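User: Quick sanity check before I run a bigger batch. Here is a single chain. Can you write out its predicted 3D structure?
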Amino acid sequence: MALSNNFRFILRIYRMKKLFLACFAALATVTFQVQAADLTEGKQYEVLALEHSAQPEVVEFFSFYCPHCYSFEMQYKIPEKIKQAIPANASFKQYHVNFLGSQGENLTRAWALAMAIGAEDKIRAPLFKAAQANSLRSMDDIRQIFIDNGVTAEQFDGSINSFAVTALVNKQTNLAEQFKVRGVPDFYVNNKFHINMEGLSHDNFVQDYVDTVNELLSK
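Assistant: Done. Predicted structure follows.
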């Protein structure tokens, strides 16, 4: 009799677990649908009259001189959070714009060099800090920052005006013109969607930014 009662108890727990899992799955589905329904064209994003990218991708335009870009990168870490959240098959790229600061064009070329040699993580923060302090007067100042952060003088001098770096400079400039970038930070998804930060939640801005980018990647 004790064995029978134990069996009934185990069966009852099993059925309760199944009911709980079914309710949880239904709730998750409803939650996702609500979140998806909350993403509205003209609010969180705008649709561009451009061809959809072949592969999922996120592009950020920024300037080392831009204080909001500095906050996005150094304080709120929005680019890093986006990189961590997007699917493995999606790419995240950061492109520099020319139109801010006296060394804007030189910084675009310097960032192209950083991308070409894989030194973005070494020089991103130092260049941000130098530009925000308005301490950059020439390419020589930028060169010294590269050297101080692990890039050899030979590597910098041999690559800064190379064909590969110049091609990346042109790519950044041409894409900024194609997207008609007028202010930064500015994010684009799949070559088709422009994030409208004014339409994002003020109470949960960072997470809403990340979630909006992630959801647009699937469109």
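The chain has nine helices and five strands.

User: Great, the batch can go ahead then.
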